Amino acid sequence: SQGPVPDTGVTTIALANQKGGVAKTTSVASIGAALAELGQRVLLVDLDPQACLTFSLGVDPDTVERSIHDVLTGSAEIADVVVTCEEGVDLVPSAIDLAGAEAMLLPRPGREYVLRSALEGVDPAYDVVLLDCSPSLGVLTLNALTAADALIIPMPCEMLSHRGVGQLLDTVADVQKILNRDLEVWGILPTLFDGRSNHAREVLADVGERYDLPVLEPPIPKTVRFAEAPAVGRSILSTARSSKGAQAYRDVATSLLARL
Ligand code: ADP
Ligand code: MG
User: Fold this and answer.
1) 157 or 42: which leads in pLDDT
2) Residues lining ligand 2 (ion), CB within 5 A?
3) What's the CA-to-centroid distance between 26 and ligand 2, angstroms?
4) Is the pLDDT of residue 1 over 60?
5) Average pLDDT over residues 178-190
6) What ranges do the domains of the chain cover?
7) What pLDDT, on the 0 to 100 scale, is given for residue 120?
8) Cα Rg of the chain, angstroms
9) What is the ipTM of this complex?
10) Which CATH number fits domain 11-252: 3.40.50.10330, 3.40.50.460, 3.90.1150.10, 3.40.50.300?
11) What is the pLDDT of residue 42?
12) Which ligand is nearest to the CA of 20?
């Protein structure tokens, strides 16, 4: 079906950027935990074969029984694979076999719509679904953009990080034309922000105008606390409750809540 994404009351937000290391996964885990703190029912979907989100939420991708891969092959429904995590969020885990999903999907008609169809059957009690994309613009990311109501582009405040954003926005324009007319770009989420750096402040001031996109606030500060969180299977929201990074993600989540 190529109609609008049905209004189930669940808002699906993709976090995508084909560059790795821009804090997509960290942002999905942290915004998800922050929305859960605000009383929202949150489902996170790990669409990266590297399964960093799955691992960072304390689920071992090597032993997980069923994953997003089974959903995309049609052998399971989302509800069959959901794992409940400690921070009040549910997770559709990834596993290494997801790497084969791209090749499996490629020859299939309607391959970009598989995730969207699966999410149509998701429990309507969820308020928000966050999609953690892999660092590519392949068929998995196209599935995310086709299933989403909104896109957030995490981007570090460094000049070199801009490379590729134009290509991502071209892909988004194609998706809006052909696959998902209703996809809204909610904006750039500035990440890894070092407020002491003039360069970072200049990039932050310029990036919205350069791409004619909203810039979500506040920027997420660069802090070592983020490095510690995934190792214990918790996001920074609980490992460093009152850190500036955790607070920044709470503020972003509060402003997103107003749009859900
Ligand atoms: P992506 O999913 O885009 O590849 P990640 O979320 O995995 O990016 O983040 C890449 C690395 O940067 C990880 O090691 C993560 O812990 C670290 N990181 C993310 N956000 C911050 C931050 N605000 N401050 C410091 N390190 C961060
Ligand atoms: Mg990631």
Assistant:
1) 42
2) 24-25, 52
3) 7
4) no
5) 97
6) 11-252
7) 95
8) 17
9) 0.99
10) 3.40.50.300
11) 98
12) 1
| Residue 175, CB-side half-sphere exposure with 13 Å CA sphere | 28
Three-class HEC string of the chain: CCCCCCCCCCEEEEECCCCCCCCHHHHHHHHHHHHHHCCCCEEEEECCCCCHHHHHCCCCCCCCCCCHHHHHCCCCCHHHHCEECCCCEEEECCCHHHHHHHHHHCCCCCHHHHHHHHHHCCCCCCCEEEEECCCCCCHHHHHHHHHCCEEEEEEECCHHHHCCHHHHHHHHHHHHHHCCCCCEEEEEEEECECCCCHHHHHHHHHHHHHHCCCECCCCCECCCHHHHCHHHCCCHHHHCCCCHHHHHHHHHHHHHHCCC
Residue 239's pLDDT is what? 78
Distance CA 245, CA 162 (A): 22
Tell me the pLDDT of the chain averaged across its residues.
92
**What is the CA(76)–ligand 1 centre distance, in A?**
31
pLDDT in tens, 75-105: 999 999 999 998 889 999 999 889 888 889 9
Please write the tens of the pLDDT for every residue from 125-134: 999 999 999 9
Residue 149 is predicted with a pLDDT of: 98
Q: Is 222 in the pocket of ligand 1 (CB under 6 A)?
A: yes
* Selected residue with higher pLDDT from 3 and 127: 127
- Closest by CA to 240, choosing from 231, 228, 254, is 228
Taking CA atoms only, the protein residue closest to ligand 1 atom 9 is 23
Quote the CA–CA distance of 234 and 228 in Å, as a whole number.
Answer: 9
The model's confidence at residue 238, banded by pLDDT at 50, 70 and 90, is: confident
Paired tokens of 16: 């995508």
